[in-house]
Amino acid sequence: MKIGVVGGGINGLCCAWELARRGHAVRLFERDHLMQATSRATSKLLHGGLRYIEHGEFRLVREALHERDAWLRRAPHLAHPLHLVVPQYAGARRGRLTIGLGLWIYDRLAGDSALAGHRHLPATELLRRLPGLRRDGLRGGYEFSDAQMDDYRLGMWVAEQARQAGVRIGEGEEVIRCDEQGGVSTVAGEHRFDRVLNVAGPWAGALLQRSGLTAPVRLDLVRGSHLILDRVCEQALLLEVPGEKRIFFVLPWKGHTLVGTTEVRQGLDEAIAPSAEEEHSLLRAYGHYFPAETPVVVERFAGVRPLLAGAANPSDASREYVIHRSGRLITVFGGKWTTAMALAQRVAGLAS
Ligand SMILES: Cc1cc2nc3c(=O)[nH]c(=O)nc-3n(C[C@H](O)[C@H](O)[C@H](O)COP(=O)(O)OP(=O)(O)OC[C@H]3O[C@@H](n4cnc5c(N)ncnc54)[C@H](O)[C@@H]3O)c2cc1C
What we know:
Layout: E1 2-6, H1 10-21, E2 25-30, E3 45-46, H2 58-74, E4 79-89, H3 96-109, E5 119-121, H4 123-129, E6 138-149, H5 151-164, E7 168-171, E8 175-178, E9 183-186, E10 189-192, E11 195-198, H6 204-210, E12 219-229, E13 236-240, E14 247-253, E15 256-260, E16 264-265, H7 276-289, E17 297-308, E18 321-326, E19 329-334, H8 340-351
Parallel strand pairs: 1-2, 1-11, 2-7, 4-13, 11-19
Antiparallel strand pairs: 3-6, 4-6, 5-6, 8-9, 9-10, 12-15, 12-16, 12-17, 13-14, 14-15, 18-19
Helix pairs in contact: 1-5, 1-8
Bound molecules: flavin-adenine dinucleotide (FAD).
């Protein structure tokens, strides 16, 4: 079959690669450059998403944990295991039992993963690893495994695999409209396909709207910002934002410290950049746990999550994805970086 793919983020690239591997003639349209949008503005984690257990998203977490391990096998040069610690403080929203139970479930959902299961650490061990960590109320913590990637380079590696499998990739090719009969319009002309995949991430709904089609699913667009601080990170951490239910990460990143993320609803007409308020709140949260430090921000970036609408609070919005087919047009709504290959396999199944 001739298949057109709209979107050169991780989900579009994985779909294109998978379909080409199955013998289809695939052409991908990216309006900008590959991997320039959401897919390179992540927390750089290949993870199951411990937090999603709180929302009962067991299917997603199981799939993501399986995919985390699959990426580690697929591209060990661009992804590596990462041990994170969740410190436990007196008065935290999630107590020792809650975190311990969540991690027990996380390990069960990971099945026969080669990564180490969780374990409890005494406060003395945490302070040995991180002498600058806040001491007041520190009760110890849990260590668990996930993985870290270079999102941009790993995505470009996928693009290279897709090219080698025969995908024709066009950058600077914006799709102006598409239809349910396999039509795709760009400035350069009209194209006809047996299937068209709308994998435009946060812009998937907007493309349908421009095409005069009704979106069966509404996206909640939630910006997330990160800061890179001028210091070496000795230990990856998952922390509660002081006084809030939200969590944030402090992670090692290329000899520096990556801190993120935030959750702010936004429209597609607004700039995708961290606001001064987000920067301030991330620095405040970091400073709460490292009170003696005065870090300097060396870089900042933001991305927009394409989440399934429905939750009052963006923190509670589902990280699941929906694949919808109408005639020859298939649209992807949502989708984590980690699960992009699993999503691609489902899309390929539906396209055939
Ligand atoms: C702050 C933040 C942190 C995150 N952290 C993680 C994490 O650590 N781990 C994880 O697994 N997931 C993470 N995610 C989620 C993950 O990044 C996204 O779900 C995923 O990258 C979405 O990929 P995508 O390909 O669907 O979208 P995108 O990467 O946005 O790609 C869509 C592409 O479509 C193109 N496009 C749009 N409209 C058109 C058009 N009309 N014609 C042609 N091209 C078009 C765009 O230019 C873009 O390149 C995070 C997300 C955010 C925002």
